[in-house]
Design goal:
16 helices; five-stranded parallel beta sheet; 4 domains; alpha/beta; Heat Shock Protein 90
């Protein structure tokens, strides 16, 4: 039970009020009591807020307990009310319970008061717990609906985006730096990136996308995104990056950490329509037990903190209370999905961290994200992706893909890098192509996972019985749980999610061919 208990006591006899107070405290119930004697003071105290329990005498000179009960039950039904009266007939007692009173106690039998108060507060806590569980259940149902929706559209949408992104990259390679079409193609590429990001948001938020954590340096993540972030902020906004010195390492999915940072930066930009400043900073932080209590969901320990601060419009308490709620947004219709911060919270929680928010209207907002610090070496996967010319080769490859546009794109990209490329539209077709092939042996197969007639996994097992050294690169635009059902998402199997770019495909193929 809450301590101290904030009690509003309607009582015109000071001696009775003092006796009731001392009775509760003698029973170990610590109280902070506000005593009132009339209607106006009673209503004013309730409107002021912070009341946990109402105690009321039944008969006062200008006001009575039944009138107080009707007011409280009509406007503040969550606050329990116990009548404490010197005389209360059976009929009046029954009426009080019918009208919403939690209990009644006679003044000559105050021994019942403390148990009645404890029981009333237990009922309040039980109702709050039921509401919390109901909210969780509704959120779980919402997640399931989102998951089903995301699963249904992800495959086709990712195939479409793979084609848009792939051909945009190929066009950019052919256009000179001063070509007037270069900017238009760049806009198409950026739009497809945002669309792919929205799909990932849906999948992460609905927990249909698997997080692949690696040990990484948060400063590297921020540095890699610096140029991209600069492109998304307005000219009247000044961005400052303050990297922490001797920063500890964290274990998280670098792509999703970047997505969190991108969401926070875009929100900061939108909060400063007339310009301003925002700062991205990293630092080592240790939360002791006292500091951990001030951070919801935190436990004491060592953390690496990522903060994004802006000088924008700030938020009201009402907005902050709903900040991480799915589909809640303060942006105009068509300007926001309401998934950005909800997705950020999901990503951070999956990494074992938590988010803190401080905001004042007119004075800006600061988001602080705390990732648990780990004492491990950086993973190779966390190091920056190399740039420069795409790797070439002369080996024979087989591309198996049921979506024609994606198949033509993959084949064209690999052929442009010097490979001899065969293609097939499904697993059965691929087996026929492989058997009919004459010439240099097929060294690697790039195959979709889920296809009609025969899927990629079954086809790969058939091919490996004939070509034991064959390398297999699986690709898919389906959600991770659908792919896992086909037995693909295992550590020893190479996998490339859609949408992928020509550069990513070329490097992944060369990496597998060169692997022992």
């Amino acid at each position: 039970m809450k301590s101290p208990l904030h009690i509003l006591h309607l009582e015109d006899n000071p001696n009775d009020a003092a006796l009731i107070q001392s009775t509760l405290e003698a029973e170990g119930i610590t109280c902070a009591t506000t005593c009132v004697q009339n209607h106006n003071d009673f209503v004013a105290a309730l409107e002021h807020g912070g009341i946990d329990l109402i105690l009321s005498d039944c008969s006062l000179p200008a006001f009575d307990g039944m009138a107080a009960l009707k007011i409280a039950h009509a406007q503040w039904p969550a606050i329990p009310l116990i009548l404490v009266s010197g005389a209360l007939g059976e009929e009046l007692a029954i009426d009080s319970l019918k009208n919403g009173a939690t209990d009644y106690v006679l003044k000559e039998r105050l021994v019942r008061l403390a148990p009645a108060v404890r029981r009333a507060m237990q009922e309040v806590e039980a109702r709050a717990e039921r509401r919390r569980l109901e909210t969780q259940f509704i959120e779980a149902q919402k997640m399931e609906v989102i998951g089903q929706l995301a699963s249904g559209v992800a495959h086709d949408f990712n195939n479409i985006l793979a084609v848009i992104m792939g051909y945009s990259d190929l066009m950019m390679q052919d256009l000179g730096p001063e070509d007037r079409l270069r900017k238009h193609v760049g806009e198409i590429r950026d739009a497809s990136e945002r669309a792919a990001g929205l799909t990932r948001q849906l999948l992460v938020f609905s927990r249909k996308q698997t997080v692949h954590p690696v040990v990484l340096d948060l400063n590297d993540v921020v540095k890699d995104l610096d140029k991209i972030l600069q492109r998304f902020i307005n000219e009247n906004i000044e961005m400052t990056i303050v990297p922490g010195k001797q920063l500890g390492r964290i274990k998280a999915d670098s792509g999703y950490v970047g997505q969190v940072l991108m969401n926070l930066v875009l929100n900061a930009r939108d909060a400063m329509p007339n310009g301003g400043q925002f700062t991205i900073a990293t630092n080592n932080v240790t939360l002791d037990e006292n500091r951990a209590r001030t951070h919801t969901g935190a436990i004491p320990g060592d953390y690496v903190m990522l903060s994004v601060s802006d000088t924008g419009t700030g938020m009201t308490d009402e907005v902050k209370a709903r900040l991480f709620e799915a589909f809640f947004t303060t942006k105009p219709l068509g300007k926001g999905t309401g998934l950005g911060l909800a997705t950020c919270q999901t990503i951070v929680q999956q990494s074992g961290g938590h988010i803190g928010v401080h905001s004042e209207v007119g004075r800006g907002t600061t988001f602080k994200i705390y990732f648990p610090r780990v004492e491990q070496s950086l993973d190779v996967a966390a190091r920056p992706i190399r740039t420069g010319p795409l790797p070439r080769g002369t080996e024979t490859l087989l591309v198996v893909e049921d979506e024609p546009s994606v198949r033509y794109l993959a084949r064209g990209v690999l052929e442009s890098q010097g490979y001899k490329v065969l293609s097939a539209s499904n697993g059965q077709d691929a087996l026929h192509v492989a058997r009919a092939h004459q010439g240099s042996p097929i060294r690697l197969v790039v195959t979709d996972v889920i296809m009609p007639l025969m899927g990629g996994k079954v086809m790969a097992e058939w091919l490996k019985t004939t070509y034991p050294g064959l390398k297999i690169l699986f690709t898919s635009g389906y959600t991770d749980d659908a792919i896992a059902h086909h037995g693909v998402l295992k550590p020893d199997l190479a996998f490339l999610p859609k949408p992928y770019t020509p550069a990513v495909l070329s490097r992944k193929v060369r990496e597998l061919l060169d692997a022992e």
